């Protein structure tokens, strides 16, 4: 018989977690499941991503996207599951929010984490249910968590590594770079390689001198040099300053890497984490319960999670100074994955173009939505609008849509903008026909009380 008092290793495959979801009224675990949105070859799993980002309560909200990247089997998913726990337990923001780490015997669930040698995560996974949180301004945003394939492990090819890390950097507003024991020259070199394209991305845009990416947070696991820098964020900031300092006698390559990191990210941060304790890491049955973790680990873990997820710390994803909604983010996922799936690593120029395409596609999607929503509002009554009323409503909706399109800051120049504006007009024309038919259908139904099947037959 199973011994209920003994921790049992969790192995949350996507399906298991989905089962959790259906039972979530009874079990106190985060609702949702990890869903693979980019496969191991860098291909977008579009329908899955669409389900997440286009959910009715999510699509129009601005997004905060936190992605954790770094070598495999270094506690990335383990850390993500604590972020998940924070978001889950502080959902109502009320009293007790400070106790989100929960009872010591609670197993850690969510993204799949485990010991052993085989890689657990491949490609990029996202938590299926975005967390809706309020910023200090009161604005509600959708918080998304992303788990990535291990980089530079012994199995994955260089291209796979670059693709996953580059996508994670391009798409996130907070990139958590998980490293072991210290920030090594190697880690910085990898970062340099992964973000190589980033500076050029903005040479094509208007925002010269503005870092293309937002927050980069180093999470240094198993930090032991507490005599020089204490655990936590303050020690981490001082340590990172030292690591990234440029010195006169430094090799030009090392200097360049440091300059690059500074010019790529708006904000750099670092947390020095204690080892979580051998009682936990050496026990094959360890299920993530905090009672088995070394006591020094918990306050540092708690502070690290809160420094990323507290309402006043949330960072909305921006591209070219424009804050992205979930709908816009979907356009960027499509554009960037198309690039990386194409074969060889893309040239910086093509990344610039993809960013400009996605920027215009997002403006178009938003403008089209403005049109259809205005028309839905105008045509919502059961009574038909007269032709004249309909034309007035259509004209106003077109104006609102074009103004929404024009008011988005564009990248990529006039020709690209005109191409997307023309395609917006074509979609509006199609949609106009649909609304017009629907409006006339109301008249037939109202005037003749004709059975619906006959009306459909008449229109066909
Ligand atoms: P990932 O491949 O980077 O996502 O790693 P996982 O989150 O799956 O964790 C791999 C193993 O590392 C698990 O057995 C955890 O118990 C263990 N682990 C978690 N956090 C830490 C840490 O901070 N230090 C060490 N040494 N091990 C950890
Ligand atoms: Mg993992």
Observed structural traits:
460 residues, 8-stranded mixed β-sheet, globular, binds guanosine-5'-diphosphate, binds magnesium ion
Intertermini distance: 66 Å
Global shape: globular
Cofactors, ions, other ligands: guanosine-5'-diphosphate, magnesium ion
Percentage beta strand: 5-15%
Which class of secondary structure composition applies to the elements? alpha/beta
- Number of E-type strands: 10
How would you characterize the largest beta sheet? 8 strands, mixed
Order of helices and strands: HEHEHEEEHEHHEHHEHHEEHHHHH
| Averaged pLDDT | 83
Radius of gyration: 25 Å
**Portion in helices:** 40-55%
How many helices? The count is: 15
List the helices and strands and how they pair.
Blueprint: H1 14-22, E1 34-38, H2 46-53, E2 62-70, H3 76-89, E3 124-127, E4 131-134, E5 140-148, H4 158-171, E6 174-180, H5 185-194, H6 198-203, E7 213-221, H7 233-244, H8 252-264, E8 265-272, H9 278-281, H10 297-309, E9 318-319, E10 322-323, H11 326-341, H12 348-378, H13 387-407, H14 413-448, H15 452-459
Parallel strand pairs: 2-5, 2-6, 6-7, 7-8
Antiparallel strand pairs: 1-3, 3-5, 4-5, 9-10
């Amino acid at each position: 018989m199973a011994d209920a008092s003994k921790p049992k290793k969790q192995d949350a495959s996507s399906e298991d977690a989905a089962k959790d979801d259906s039972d979530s009224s009874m079990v106190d675990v985060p609702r949702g499941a990890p869903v693979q949105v980019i496969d191991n070859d860098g291909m977008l799993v579009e329908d899955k991503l669409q389900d997440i980002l286009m959910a009715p309560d999510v699509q129009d909200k601005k997004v905060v996207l936190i992605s954790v990247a770094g070598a495999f089997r270094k506690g990335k998913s383990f850390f993500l599951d604590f972020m998940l726990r924070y978001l889950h337990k502080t959902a109502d923001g009320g009293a007790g929010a400070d106790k989100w780490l929960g009872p010591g015997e609670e197993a850690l669930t969510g993204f799949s984490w485990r010991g052993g040698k085989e890689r657990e995560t491949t490609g990029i996974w996202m938590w299926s249910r975005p967390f809706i949180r309020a910023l200090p301004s009161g604005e509600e945003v959708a918080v998304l968590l992303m788990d990535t394939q291990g980089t530079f492990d012994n199995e994955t090819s260089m291209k796979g590594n670059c693709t996953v890390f580059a996508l994670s950097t391009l798409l996130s507003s907070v990139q958590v770079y998980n490293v072991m024991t210290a920030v090594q020259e190697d880690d910085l070199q990898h970062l340099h390689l992964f973000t190589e394209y980033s500076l050029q991305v903005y040479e094509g845009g208007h925002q010269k001198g503005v870092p293309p990416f937002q927050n980069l947070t180093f999470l240094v696991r198993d930090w032991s040099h507490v005599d020089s820098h204490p655990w936590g964020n303050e020690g981490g900031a001082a340590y990172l300053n030292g690591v990234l300092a440029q010195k006169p006698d430094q090799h030009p390559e090392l200097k360049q890497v440091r300059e690059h990191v500074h010019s790529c990210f708006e904000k750099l941060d670092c947390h020095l984490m204690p080892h979580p304790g051998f009682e936990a890491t050496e026990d094959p049955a360890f299920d993530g319960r905090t009672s088995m973790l070394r006591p020094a680990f918990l306050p540092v873990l708690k502070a690290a999670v809160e420094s990323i997820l507290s309402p006043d710390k949330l960072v909305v994803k921006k591209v070219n100074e424009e804050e992205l909604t979930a709908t816009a983010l979907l356009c960027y996922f499509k554009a960037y994955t198309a690039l990386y799936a194409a074969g060889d690593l893309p040239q910086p120029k093509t990344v610039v173009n993809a960013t400009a395409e996605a920027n215009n596609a997002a403006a178009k999607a938003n403008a089209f939505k403005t049109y259809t929503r205005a028309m839905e509002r105008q045509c919502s009554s059961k009574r038909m609008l007269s032709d004249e009323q309909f034309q007035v409503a259509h004209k106003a909706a077109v104006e609102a849509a074009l103004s929404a399109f024009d008011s988005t800051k564009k990248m990529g120049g006039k020709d690209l903008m005109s191409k997307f504006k023309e395609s917006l007009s074509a979609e509006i024309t199609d949609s106009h026909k649909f609304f017009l038919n629907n409006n006339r259908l109301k008249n037939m139904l109202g005037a003749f009380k004709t059975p619906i099947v006959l009306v459909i037959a008449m229109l066909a």
